[in-house]
Each structure stands twice: as structure tokens, then as C-alpha cells.
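Good morning,

Both structures are done.
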Amino acid sequence: MPFGTGQRVARFFKKTHDEYQLFDPVVFNILKDWLRLYNSNAESDPEYILSCSRDIHIDLYNFLINQKYPEDWKNIFKDAKSDKQLSHQKKIWFDTFKTLKLIHYLRDTSYPNINMFDALDMLFVKLEIDNKISRNSKDIPELRVQRQYLRLLREI
């Protein structure tokens, strides 16, 4: 059963969409690296941050350009009266809505959604969890195997 809106649940039962898809976990690695850079006390120059973002991923850089990061931040630095105010502006500029926009941008440009069970296998590897669940295919496993995934997730 999908998590989400009534529309999403209806799609699941009509089988009009593959609801067993998740964002590629690589997207969240890029987001983690971006947040580490963005929230660091490193040099505050927007051009420096923008340059470092390109090193993280070119599509992160492109997203920031599309979102007018350099122009916005030059104005924010010019108007900020204190470090506290600057910190507050950082939270406002890169809020949850913009975070989701970045995730969707990365999905649409570089990392399309992947099979949910492939994503879970990647998660288990990253968390160094011994996953002895065997799937016969890359498709949606039978319900018995899905329950094994659920049990393993509940142990985390």
C-alpha cells in the first residue's frame, strides 16, 4: 500500500502507475553534501559556495543557478546585520519547499526513481545491515518477501 494522498492510493489499486518506486538514494547523498557545505561556517562568499556545489554535482550547481542563488545571497549578505540574522536567512532561503524542489530536480535530470526494493538493498548496504533476503528478480517480489523487508526495516 502506498503512502500518500488518496489519489496515490487510487492509482495503486487501478495499477496505472508503478507505486513501487523511490527516489534514488544518491539524491540524498548529494543533498547531505550540499547541506553540510551550505550550513558550514566556511567562507560565506556565494561564488565560493557555488563553486563548491559544482564539485558536489553539476546538477546541484545548475539548480542553484536556476534558483538565483548568487543574486539572492549577494543581497542577503549586503542586508544582514548579524551572524544570527544571516543564519536565519539561510533557513528561509533553503527551506523544505526548496529542498523538495532540489530532490525533484535531481530526479528529473540525473537520478530517476528506482525500484523500491533496490533502494532498500542499497540502504541496507549503507547501514551495514546483513540482508539475507533473496529476490529472484528486479521486479516487485512476492508478498512473503515484502514482509521480510518490512521485518528487517522494523529492526532498524
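Second structure follows.
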Amino acid sequence: MTHPFRHLRTILRHRHAVIRHCRKAGILRQGLLHDLSKFSPSEFWTGARYYLGDRSPNEAERAERGYSLAWMHHKGRNKHHYEYWVDINPKSRVYEPVPMPIRYVAEMFCDRVAASKIYRGKEYTDDHPLAYFDRGNAAKTMHPDTAATLRAWLVRLAENGEEAAFAEVRAAVQAARRAENAREPFL
């Protein structure tokens, strides 16, 4: 059964949570642009068709078809997903993960925290995003530097709470911006 209104409500609640988190992380603009592809017909109607309410509809599509077209569309358009950051290594000529720029790791952190809050509801605690990360295979398939950074922030969240975790993320984003600006030549 298709649930377009429930799916839309979940998307909007998630986006608003990500926007709030991105503001705390110092990347508000990214938050405002977060997951806009979910409103495209290929992602939205698939999500409405496979709506679950307590987890991603991509899981239900994948269970039925053996793959998720909506997910393949989504990951190829959203730089906060580590799957976007896979390219052919010029030496090995094999697809391999590459390190993500810190601002996208920060958005991925915000996304994971928001998703845990939306799907866990009142059961959410600050250790849920870390537990989800540790249960999954993401650390095995993303670049080791990216995985280490994300896990460190998730540990900070679990052990010290949101204020400390977002302060650490914001500091890393600011340091990356300063480093990027230092590399820019003056014209």
C-alpha cells in the first residue's frame, strides 16, 4: 500500500532535524540543501510505495527486488553519503573509497543522528547512532580516514552528549575551512 503523506511527513521531519544539526555543526547551507533528491519522483514515489515508518523504505525495496533503485539514485546525488566517494584508483584501476571532505563527513554525522532520532522516536539515546554504525558494514566499505572521523564523533556523542559532539564537529569544519582558504591563491 502506498503512503505518500506518511512518507512526506517522515522526510520533512528528518530534513528539519538535519537542518537543526547542520546549524549546530556550522554547515547550515548544507542542511538547507540536504536530501532534496528525496522529492524527485524516482525517490519519492518509491519511498511512498515501500514506506515502513521505522526504517528506510530502501530496505523494503531492496528486500523485494534485490536492489534499491531509489537508493542508487540518492547516493549518486548526495555528497554526504560515503558511497558517493568511490572512484577508480589510478594505480590499482579498481573502484575504491576516497577520503570525504570534512564538511560532508559533518553532514553525514548530522544525517545519522537525525535518522536515529526520527526512527527511534522516544527510545532514542545518544548512543544509538554509534551502535547503528558499529552494527553495520559502513566502516568496512568507507575510506578508513572517513570511518575513523565519523566514529570518533559518534563516540563523543555517546559519551559526552550533543553539545560536546557538535562542538567538536564545528571545530573540525572551521579548521578545514581555514586550511582550504590558506590554499587559495590571492588573485
